[in-house]
């Protein structure tokens, strides 16, 4: 993937505010498409604090919301992911008693 084009944010914002046609701005900065011009203009506005930034998809809030789910395989075994095993401090071969509750299923070390 090619590197992001470096454009002077102040000059780009000034050119747009001056009302220059997009063709002239694109020639001046060496931009080939209007979509690229719009993206660079938005980036310049964000850089100068004139427009709010768009939140990233991979933010920490999304990582924290990850649910703790286990699944039952074909044989009826409960599959507990390794990170969850480490988090709860389970050991390989450890025994549990299982009981049904109103909320679902409860595991208790035997």
Fold blueprint:
Layout: H1 9-17, H2 22-29, H3 34-47, H4 60-64, E1 71-72, E2 78-79, H5 82-88, E3 96-100, E4 105-109
Antiparallel strand pairs: 1-2, 3-4
Structure notes:
There is one protein chain. This protein is 39% helix and 13% strand. The protein contains 5 helices and 4 strands. The protein is of the alpha+beta class. The strands form 2 sheets. It has a two-stranded antiparallel sheet. A two-stranded antiparallel sheet has the order 3-4. α1 crosses α3. The termini are far apart. The model has no long low-confidence stretch (mean pLDDT 86). The chain folds into 2 domains: 9-47; 64-109, Ribbon (Pemi-like Protein 1, Chain: D). A hairpin with a 4-residue loop joins β3 (96-100) and β4.
CATH architecture of the largest domain: Ribbon
Strand order, largest beta sheet: 1-2
The unreliable regions are: none
**Strand segment tally:** 4
Shape descriptor: rod-shaped
In short:
Helix content is 39%, strand content 13%. It has 110 residues and is an alpha+beta fold.
Question: What are the key terms here?
Answer:
two-stranded antiparallel sheet; single chain; 110 residues; rod-shaped; 39% helix; 2 domains
